[in-house]
Amino acid sequence: MTFISEELAARFHHFGSHTYVQEGGQFVYPEDVSVGSNVFIRSHYWFNVISPGLGTSPKIIIGDGTQCNLGLVISAVNRVELKANVLTGPNVYISDTDHQYREVGIPIHSQGITSYMHRVEIGEGAWIGANAVIVGNVKVGKGSVISANSVVTGDIPDYCVAGGSPAKILRVYDPASGQWLRTRSKREAARILDRRKEQPLLSICIPTYNRASDLEQCLESIYSQIGDTDLIEVRVSDNASTDATQKVLKRYAEQYPSFHYQHNAENIGADPNIMHVLGQGKGKFLKIQGDDDFYVPETLIPLLHVLHTYKDCSVIHIDLLQPTGVVEGGEGLEAFLNKSSIYSSFISATILRREDWERIEDKGLYLDSSFNQIYWQYAMLEQNPRFCVVHRSMFTYAGNDTASYNFGRVFIDSYQRILQHFVGRGLSGESIRADKQRVFYSFILPWFQRFASSGSGKLEGFEIYFSQHYGNEPYYPEAMQQIQLIAARHASL
Question: Which of 226, 342, 367, 407 has the fewest beta carbons closer than 10 A?
Answer without folding.
Answer: 367
